[in-house]
UniProtKB/TrEMBL annotation:
Residues 4-220 form the NAD-dependent epimerase/dehydratase domain. It comes from Butyrivibrio proteoclasticus (strain ATCC 51982 / DSM 14932 / B316) (Clostridium proteoclasticum). SUPFAM superfamilies: NAD(P)-binding Rossmann-fold domains. Belongs to the NAD(P)-dependent epimerase/dehydratase family. The lineage of its organism: Bacteria, Bacillati, Bacillota, Clostridia, Lachnospirales. This is NAD dependent epimerase/dehydratase.
């Protein structure tokens, strides 16, 4: 069978590509700009193109058909409209990578299923994903376009650490703060629940949907089964670094307001996603991919990631702006606490 991945070298997709590259029943093609060719398995075929150049892509794919096409870099309706024009009648299945952040939070139940309402007033990213889903499902209903919706949550790999509060350059500065013995900001009181998934585990669920006719016209969330509080997540990272965690809890509402002054979108990432407890019911995807489970729990996955990160510091940027932001917020709140205590004692 033939699969075409648009993108294919990101955190989520690379785990799938590596697994499929070892499966002789699949012939895998990547369509991207070729910036990470050295990391792609030798058996994978590369089509070098910018998906935004529709005419060029159309020419390069002329005469080709696929069993599965999946776009890992479609973030708005214009992107899936383009994909529909390119692949209608040329694939037996089109898998759209949506997001579990599209679910309404807090939902009526903390247990999230594929039937949980889609709505996110806090995050444009999530609203765009919802709009993409609606367009594709309308094409399925009207024209039989063979779409499958996949909703990942917080997926990571050996290059990334999943954290709740970080700056524009990612998680690395938080790791540095831990190593330097500085307090680390955690949203809320750290007790809300979250699911993190290593990309090779995600790949098992995703591949179980590929070429499966029972997946057509359906949506599936794919996450690990391990549920941790945010304090547990940060404590696991600190333990792997062999340092003491100094958690500093700040309400997500306050972070959202203060962050705006510094250009941080904590409203979307926290109020629209990570601040709310979620437990994902993965029974639907497991019916089609029964081997889907947490093979790499977080305490093992984070050590894999730190082994790579600490041995490749040249690939990561320090973020002095975020470091200063954390210090300002912590100092301001400490002073406010002292003032309140002093006032209450008078």
């Amino acid at each position: 069978m033939k699969a075409l991945f648009i993108g294919g070298t990101g955190t989520i997709s690379m785990g799938i590509v590596k697994r499929l590259a070892e499966d002789p029943s699949w012939e895998v093609y990547l369509l991207n700009r070729g910036n990470r060719k050295n990391e792609v398995p030798a058996s994978v075929k590369q089509i070098t193109a910018d998906i935004g150049n529709e005419e060029d892509v159309k020419k390069k794919l002329e005469g080709m058909t696929f069993d599965v096409v999946s776009d890992f870099i479609a973030f708005d309706v214009s992107a899936v409209e383009r994909d529909y024009r390119l692949f209608e009648g040329k694939t037996r299945q089109y898998i759209f990578i949506s997001s579990a952040s599209a679910y309404n939070k807090p939902a009526a139940s903390y247990v999230i299923t594929e039937g949980t309402t889609l709505a996110n007033p806090h995050w444009e990213y999530s609203r765009n994903k919802i709009a993409c889903e609606e367009f594709l499902l309308s094409k399925y209903r009207e024209n039989g376009f063979p779409v499958t919706i996949v909703r990942p949550s917080h997926t990571y790999d050996e290059r990334h650490i999943p954290l709740g509060v970080h700056g524009k350059k990612g998680f690395y500065q938080v790791i540095k703060r831990m190593q330097e013995g500085k307090p680390v900001i955690i949203q809320g009181d750290g007790s809300s629940l979250w699911a993190v998934t290593f990309n090779s585990d995600f790949a098992i669920g995703f591949i179980g949907l590929m070429g499966n006719r029972h997946a057509i016209g359906e949506a599936f969330q794919i996450t690990g089964d391990e549920i941790l509080s945010w304090d547990q997540i940060y404590k696991t990272v600190a333990d792997a670094l062999s340092v003491e965690l100094r958690p500093y809890h700040v309400s997500s509402d306050l972070l959202s307001e203060v962050g705006k002054e510094y250009g941080y979108d904590f409203e979307g990432e926290l109020l629209g996603d990570k601040a709310v407890s979620v437990v994902f019911d993965n029974s639907k995807v497991k019916r089609l991919a029964p081997q889907m489970t947490t093979n790499i729990p977080f305490h093992k996955g984070v050590r894999r990631a730190l082994d790579y990160i600490l041995s490749h510091p040249e690939e990561y940027e320090e973020d002095p702006e975020f470091d200063a932001f954390c210090d300002k917020v912590i100092d301001a709140l400490d002073n406010a606490k002292k003032a309140i205590i002093s006032s209450a004692n008078k």
